Amino acid sequence: MLTEMKLKELLREHFEAEAQRDVEWIKNTVSADCEYEVIGPYYPDDPVKKAKTADGRAAVGQLWENYFRKFSSYEIDCPFENMLAWPEQNVVFAQVRIRATPAEDFEGFPAGKSFCYQTGALCWFNDQGEMTREKVFGSLGQVLMDLRRMRDHLATAEDAVAA
């Protein structure tokens, strides 16, 4: 079991790796079998659902490589007071502030114009200090991509009805 402070330090290191856009460092903060899920909206009848998940260290790295291609800058702010840890379970919840700048026009947001949002992440760690699971709630980038998927699903469903 890790201490409350150690859990917060581990999570801060993970966020720092993301903020530094260092994919290898990000991968080094997670376990080989890490489950990474970014929750977004979907239609219940959509078989794709487009929830962003990554299973395993390599998949987590790929998820971040893709994200960094979409955003030319990605700043993360999460002070310790915005984290709540449960050491008996090796779990931390964090309220995170993000400022992102799209590298190209992104879902109606112009390239080069930064936007800010807040999100929450629930993170589990093993006793070796590796993140074994992260569940992110309300990440604006993912929500926007999922809304696009919802529009695509409606168009596909409408095309099927018309046929």
Observed structural traits:
alpha+beta; 163 residues; seven-stranded mixed sheet; Nuclear Transport Factor 2, Chain: A
Strands, helices and their partners?
Layout: H1 4-19, H2 23-28, E1 30-39, E2 52-55, H3 57-70, E3 71-77, E4 83-86, E5 91-102, E6 115-125, E7 131-137, H4 140-162
Radius of gyration: 17 Å
Q: Supply the CATH class.
A: Alpha Beta
Number of helices: 4
SSE sequence, one letter per element: HHEEHEEEEEH
Task: Please name the CATH architecture.
Answer: Roll
Report the principal-axis shape: globular
Structural class: alpha+beta
- Major beta-sheet overview: 7 strands, mixed
State the total count of DSSP E strands. 7
Summed up, the domain count is 1
CATH topology: Nuclear Transport Factor 2, Chain: A
Residue share in helix: 25-40%
Unreliable residue stretches: none
Kindly, what is the distance between the CA atoms of the first and last residues, rounded to a whole number of angstroms? 58 Å
Strand content: 25-35%
* Residue-averaged pLDDT: 90
Give a written overview of the molecule.
The chain has 163 residues and is of the alpha+beta class. The chain is built from four helices and seven strands. The protein has helices at 4-19, 23-28, 57-70, 140-162; strands spanning 30-39, 52-55, 71-77, 83-86, 91-102, 115-125, 131-137. Strands 1, 2, 3, 4, 5, 6 and 7 form a seven-stranded mixed beta sheet that branches. A hairpin with a 5-residue loop joins β6 (115-125) and β7 (131-137). It is globular and about 55 Å long. The N and C termini lie far apart (58 Å).
